[in-house]
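Please fill in the sequence for the structure shown.

STRUCTURE ENCODING:
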């Protein structure tokens, strides 16, 4: 019976059993797409990744990302965690590991810089593969229904709820307080309605709720729900954080800016995560978003396929 090795890591944290867990198969050669999906479903994490040789010689690897129900084009914490796992290996498909990695993905080429502390790989920083795309406006009452809260808790003074993406689309909405954020609970019936009205990736509907700090507006607390993808809540969502950061900096008054944001997520789940975002804006347009975070190894083993 064929078998593959796996590693799990906690991403966007320096504490084991916090952050966002990720399963990585560092050498997925010989696995079919169906087997990858079955393995991702078995792990049940928000995402699992499978690493294959790159199609182009100048790139490091091809990375496929699966949720428990589907393959997706891009996600933040899978790229950070996968780079961390690969960066701790002596080589990748017979080639030495350098300071940077280039991943081929459905959404495009993802550039990764390995972060080192005391000479060891401690995390990674990735650049979002696509520019900000702003999609449909979403009715506040629909957001409130999905989150099981009163529509009065959805803030619309800064912006209304909207779909945004830098590689993977999310509905993003600001809430009025941390109490409202803590009270949010996914309502699957409302999510099905939302997916019918605003079908996102694969007909799914993923909701990213946030509250900005009154002291530091670039420090944000967030929660992400995707129950139609068997992810009732995600403790850290790099792709949603990148989309939100690009959206907020786009709407900031400065025409040119370099903004660092911190997004704190997973607190209500007992899996606190810290996601670093660096956004560059030139002549009114966001030209780059970098997502960074630390990682901690948790488990390793072998899967019989």
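FILLED IN BY: designer on duty
SEQUENCE:
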């Amino acid at each position: 019976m064929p078998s593959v090795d796996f590693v799990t890591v906690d991403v966007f944290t320096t504490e084991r059993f916090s952050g966002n867990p990720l399963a990585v198969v560092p050498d997925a050669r010989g696995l079919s797409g169906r087997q990858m999906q079955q393995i991702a479903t078995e792990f049940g994490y928000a995402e699992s990744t499978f690493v294959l040789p790159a199609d182009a010689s100048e790139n490091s690897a091809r990375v496929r990302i699966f949720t428990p129900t589907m393959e997706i084009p891009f996600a933040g914490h899978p790229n950070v965690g996968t780079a961390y796992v690969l960066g701790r290996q002596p080589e990748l498909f017979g080639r030495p590991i350098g300071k940077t990695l280039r991943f081929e993905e459905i959404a495009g080429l993802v550039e990764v810089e390995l972060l080192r502390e005391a000479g060891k790989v401690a995390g990674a920083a990735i650049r979002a593969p696509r520019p900000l795309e702003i999609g449909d406006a979403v009715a506040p009452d629909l957001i409130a229904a999905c989150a099981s809260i009163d529509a009065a808790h959805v803030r619309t003074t800064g912006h209304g709820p909207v779909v945004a993406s830098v590689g993977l689309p999310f509905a993003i909405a600001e809430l009025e307080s941390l109490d409202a954020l803590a009270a949010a609970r996914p309502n699957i019936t409302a999510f099905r309605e939302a997916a019918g009205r605003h079908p996102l990736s694969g007909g799914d509907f993923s909701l990213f709720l946030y509250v900005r700090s009154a002291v530091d507006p670039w420090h944000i607390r967030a929660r992400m729900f995707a129950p139609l993808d068997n992810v009732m809540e995600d403790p850290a969502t790099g792709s949603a954080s990148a989309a939100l950061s690009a959206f907020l900096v786009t709407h900031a008054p400065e025409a040119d800016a370099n903004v660092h944001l911190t997004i704190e997520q997973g607190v209500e789940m007992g899996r606190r995560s810290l996601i670093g975002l660096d956004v560059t804006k030139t002549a009114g347009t966001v030209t780059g978003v970098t997502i960074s975070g630390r990682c901690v190894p948790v488990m390793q083993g072998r899967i019989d396929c």
